[in-house]
């Protein structure tokens, strides 16, 4: 039985074709992206920030001023004045700031992509956990049935007075332990489903996949790292931050140019009036002092930070990749070894022939079952680690 299970498992895992992980997992991730409350909240925040950024490039409000001066000693008539004016920065400032706003908007989208990845990666690992638990449950159901059959055989021997009560009790306890394993697995499945439901905004998720459909072979590390550098939202956000900082330098340089004011002025006294245009210009002596230097320093920081974080991410990636390679070789050793064994059937046959006691049978059986369970655990960890390595694809 064990041989057949391992053989089927190996055939499923190492099948060629390069299929992507289950469509069902993709559907779950799409559903979570739509329903996740944190992502919904951030989308609203993005809209608010985008509107706030655009408002920062508006013209200043127009100014209206009026004077009526009837008091005081004067021989002429009362003096009145009316003025409408509009102040604005130098035109190139608005163009530079508009580009800066566009880059900031792009940066918001990249920040959203990071948050999306931070949510979808655990969701995918939960799905992989459910697949592993389902496989473990199927194995445990077979073990429960085997334990029941052994208990029935021991009970029959006990009734024939061929074995003692201790032997019967051990067989019953072994059967109960296997039943308890089923209950534990079902509890774990329920907890993982609750975790998925939480990520899905409280909405129930139906996930019934019971087999891994993604092959375990991965591309060479250099190839994957090149994809990470071009696709990974974290690195793209870092580079986007550089672009924003560089554009801020251009904005500050343009703000060194004078502000302008234009308007209309009307003055009247003793029935006479004067009308004409009004113009003004600011003298940029103090307001922009050191702002260009500060923007350049910020850009230099962004560049250095990008290099530092990219180096750290590459180091973490290589650690994960090397760990994956080690685990994959260990997993293949397990599957190769277990494929050639028929230990459970041989042990059962030896027990039925009276060659070994029930206790010897049970102890030896647990040894092989623990090895098989370890193989299943490594299989799950491999798929989850691969999900982390390839998280940039989410």
Polypeptide structure, described:
The protein has a single domain (about 1-60, about 90-260, about 295-394), classed as Outer membrane efflux proteins (OEP). About 70% of the residues lie in helices and about 10% in strands. The chain contains ten helices and four strands. It has helices at about 1-15, 25-35, 35-55, 90-160, 165-200, 220-230, 235-255, 290-340, 345-350, 360-390, and strands at about 65-70, 80-90, 260-270, 270-280. It has a four-stranded antiparallel β-sheet with strand order 1-2-3-4, with no helix packed on it. Helix 3 runs antiparallel to helix 4 and helix 4 packs antiparallel against helix 5 (about 165-200). The protein starts with a helix and ends in a 5-residue tail after the last helix. Its main location: membrane. It is found in: Cell outer membrane.
* Tally of DSSP helical segments: 10
CATH class label: Mainly Alpha
Q: pLDDT under 50 segments (min length 5)? A: 1-22
Taken in chain order, the helices and strands follow as: HHHEEHHHHEEHHH
Under the CATH scheme, the architecture is: Up-down Bundle
- Give the N-terminus to C-terminus distance in angstroms: 38 Å
CATH fold-level assignment: Outer membrane efflux proteins (OEP)
Which structural class is indicated by helix and strand composition? alpha+beta
């Amino acid at each position: 039985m064990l041989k057949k299970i391992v053989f089927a498992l190996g055939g499923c895992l190492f099948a060629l074709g390069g299929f992507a992980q289950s469509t069902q997992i993709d559907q779950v991730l799409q559903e979570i992206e739509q329903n996740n409350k944190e992502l919904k909240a951030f989308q609203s925040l993005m809209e608010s920030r985008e509107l706030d950024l655009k408002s920062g490039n508006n013209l200043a409000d127009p100014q209206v001023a009026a004077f009526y001066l009837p008091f005081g000693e004067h021989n002429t008539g009362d003096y009145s004045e009316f003025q409408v004016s509009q102040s604005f920065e130098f035109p190139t400032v608005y163009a530079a700031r508009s580009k800066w706003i566009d880059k900031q908007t792009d940066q918001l989208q990249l920040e959203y992509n990071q948050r999306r990845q931070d949510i979808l990666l655990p969701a995918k690992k939960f799905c992989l956990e459910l697949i592993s638990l389902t496989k473990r449950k199927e194995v445990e159901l077979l073990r429960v049935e085997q334990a029941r059959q052994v208990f029935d055989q021991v009970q029959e021997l006990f009734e024939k007075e061929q074995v003692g009560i201790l032997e019967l009790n051990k067989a019953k306890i072994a059967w109960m332990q296997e039943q308890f394993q089923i209950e534990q697995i079902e509890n774990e499945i329920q907890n993982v489903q609750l975790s998925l439901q939480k990520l899905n905004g409280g909405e129930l998720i139906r996930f019934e996949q019971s087999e891994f459909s993604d092959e375990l072979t991965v591309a060479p590390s250099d190839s994957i790292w090149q994809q990470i550098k071009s696709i990974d939202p974290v690195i793209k956000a870092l580079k986007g931050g550089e672009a924003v900082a560089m554009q801020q330098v251009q904005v500050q340089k343009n703000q060194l140019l004078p502000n302008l004011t234009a308007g209309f002025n009307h003055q009247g006294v003793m029935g006479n009036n004067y009308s004409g245009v009004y113009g003004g210009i600011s003298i940029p002596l103090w307001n922009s002092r050191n702002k260009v230097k500060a923007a350049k320093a910020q850009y230099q920081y962004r560049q250095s930070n990008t290099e530092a974080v990219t180096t750290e991410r590459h180091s973490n990636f290589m650690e994960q990749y090397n760990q994956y390679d080690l685990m994959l070789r260990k997993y293949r050793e397990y599957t190769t070894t277990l494929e050639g064994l028929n230990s459970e059937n041989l042990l059962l046959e030896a027990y039925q022939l009276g060659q070994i006691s029930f206790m010897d049978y049970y102890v030896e059986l647990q040894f092989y079952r623990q090895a098989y369970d370890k193989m299943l655990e490594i299989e799950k960890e491999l798929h989850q680690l691969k999900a982390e390595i390839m998280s940039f694809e989410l």
